[in-house]
Design brief:
This protein is an alpha+beta fold and about 350 residues long. The protein has one domain (about 5-355): B-lactam Antibiotic, Isopenicillin N Synthase, Chain (Jelly Rolls, Sandwich). It has 9 helices and 17 strands. The strands form 4 sheets. Strands 3, 4, 5, 6, 7, 9, 12, 14 and 15 form a 9-stranded mixed beta sheet that branches. Helix 4 packs across helix 6. The longest helix has 27 residues, at about 180-205. Bound molecules: fe (ii) ion. Fe (ii) ion binds near residues 245, 247 and 302.
């Protein structure tokens, strides 16, 4: 798929490049070293079956500190964007660019460690914490493994907390200075972003403004720190960096990655190339939100395709989860002809999905 331009300003240039056959050259020649000042612009448009489509780009500050009119507009655009497109792009939010850049620098340092060092941190609670090696996870129903390795950061809670039996303790690599501090801060910041976004959805869904708060307080959210190495020459040709799948959780908040490859399938079935500008957050819906809304907000299918580049790709999705005892139940305004799914505890649903993607054995 060709990469697409970020703004209407450059659309004409891109169309000319497409006509001359040179538009996909930007997927090559990238350095492994993340440099946000030169990171690639954001291709957020696509010539789908319905013509040019513009993924909604929203300012979170317009919701958190804006006027009543700005808040209303944000809520409307968030709901319609996530329902009709499957995702939105968020700017002007609470996660600092400095923090994101620092996090990506540490990711590169960690994944450059020898594999024997990284394996010291593998196998913690079925991959719920620490390191999961290359070739371990596959998409639900996919016959082949994804071409990635990753690290999981979870919520920190006191030992005697009511959810202590559900949440394994985090582990931290001692080789990388600042790893725990930076990723703990990033976890907290993204958790707050997610709380604000879910709160904004309560109006359109006609539930109380604290509906999601009661589910996500002390929630089981996961920050996944991903490395997609250069594609191995020996890789099964059926393997992708991440095969098409939907996320398990309520919503996913994805800071712009360091390279292209992410594609999200919008609601008309068109695969859209999406690479946010450095500092932007991409937000999409997961299976838990889909289930609670009776598929009014379907989970967003996405994938990470193999690019021609021989470079690594790094990304840091934040999976916003309820706490384990929260019940995923059909929201009354979404009931329509009736609830499609029985109520289920979030923990039970999560375990079911983890088995399906190979991270937990039956
Ligand atoms: Fe995903």
């Amino acid at each position: 798929m060709h990469e697409l331009p970020q703004t209407v300003d450059v659309l004409n240039d891109w169309v000319k490049a497409m006509m001359s056959g040179s538009a996909n050259q930007s997927a090559t020649d990238r350095s492994d070293k993340f440099d946000s000042s030169t990171a690639e612009a954001c291709p957020q448009q696509s010539q789908g079956r319905t013509g040019l489509r513009q993924v909604p780009t929203l300012s979170l500050n317009s919701y958190t500190t804006g006027t009543a009119a700005e808040r209303t507009r944000f809520i409307d655009q968030l709901y319609s964007g996530i329902k009709d497109y499957g995702f939105i792009v968020l700017q002007d939010h609470n996660v600092s660019r400095t923090l994101l850049d620092h996090a990506y620098t540490l990711l590169q340092e960690f994944y450059a460690l020898p594999v024997e060092t990284k394996l010291k941190y593998a196998g913690v609670s079925g991959g719920q914490r620490g390191y999961t090696p290359f070739g371990k996870e596959h998409a639900k129903d996919s016959p082949v493994m994804d071409l990635k390795e990753f690290w999981h950061v979870g919520r920190e809670i006191p030992e005697n907390h009511r959810f202590a039996s559900y949440y394994p303790a985090n582990i931290w690599p001692t080789e990388i200075h600042g790893f725990q501090t930076v990723f703990s801060e990033l976890y907290a910041a993204l958790s707050e972003t997610g709380r604000q976004l879910l709160q904004a959805l309560t109006g359109p869904l006609e539930v109380s403004s604290t509906y999601f708060d009661s589910m996500i307080n002390e929630g089981n959210s996961i920050l996944r720190l991903l490395h997609y190495p250069p594609i191995p020459a020996t890789a099964d040709p059926r393997c992708l960096r991440a095969a098409p799948h939907e996320d398990i959780n309520l919503i996913t908040i994805l800071p712009a990655a360091t390279a292209t490859g992410l594609q999200l399938k919008d609601r008309d079935g068109t695969w859209l190339d999406v690479v946010g500008k450095p500092g932007e957050l991409i937000v999409d819906a997961g299976d838990m939100l889909s289930r609670a809304t009776n598929d009014v907000i379907p989970s967003t299918t996405h994938q990470v395709v193999n690019t021609a580049s021989s470079s690594s790709r790094y990304s840091m999705p934040f999976f916003m989860h309820p706490h384990p005892e929260a019940i995923l139940s059909c929201i009354p305004s979404c009931r329509g002809a009736g609830a499609k799914y029985p109520d289920i505890a979030a923990y039970e649903f999560l375990m079911q999905r983890l088995r399906e993607i190979g991270l937990l054995k039956s």
